[in-house]
Amino acid sequence: MDPIGELADDRALLGRTSTAERVADILRTRIAEGFFPPGTRLSEDGIGGALGVSRNTLREAFRLLTHERLLVHRLNRGVFVRVLTVDDVADLYRTRRLVECAVVRGLGLGLEEPLFVLDALAAAVAEGQEAARNGDWKGVSTANIHFHRELVALAGSARTDELMRGVLAELRLAFHVVDDARALHEPYLQRNREILDALESGRFDRAEQLLAGYLDDSRTRIVAAYAKAVDAPEV
Prior knowledge:
- The protein is mainly α.
- It has helices at about 5-10, 20-30, 45-50, 55-65, 85-110, 120-135, 135-155, 160-175, 180-185, 185-200, 205-230; strands at about 40, 70-75, 80.
């Protein structure tokens, strides 16, 4: 897979009003979906050429993603996808639990609209199950990210969506370091289905309970696997 070549397919997303924010959004999505693993040096010439943007625009996009802790600039060496520390991974899960459980709780209180438009969430569950049938565990990981992104989107809050896009993209950096992707992601396929079932039946307390347990278990497993796989220094 050529990640630079893949970026050329995203060029149409920029349209005529190409901006650093849109470039950053494309790169953030690509990082979240695993095209640029931790430690990867990002080529200004390669990415700028693929997207058809100026060096200044690309550098501003890099600056935005550095602020989001997805990239790091190394003096005289360039820009790299960041390598997380173990503490980073644990903190990302604390953030997820606060935000995702609050969204589900709000659904139960009737604070979020729309309440029952769960098609995108169901599609993410189906996406994960199809990837698992094909033995595509990276695809399962991507589908899981989609599930949680769509779960948060039920709040109807652009700010919350933006926050979670960054959190989930950053968390994806940890997944690349763990060797056994199947062991990491397979247990949560059924749990996603159970959360969806609870939401579809209006059992919001149950959905929140399932989600909280899911995130606690996932944090324990991933932090342990990440710590074992790599001593991840701040870079």
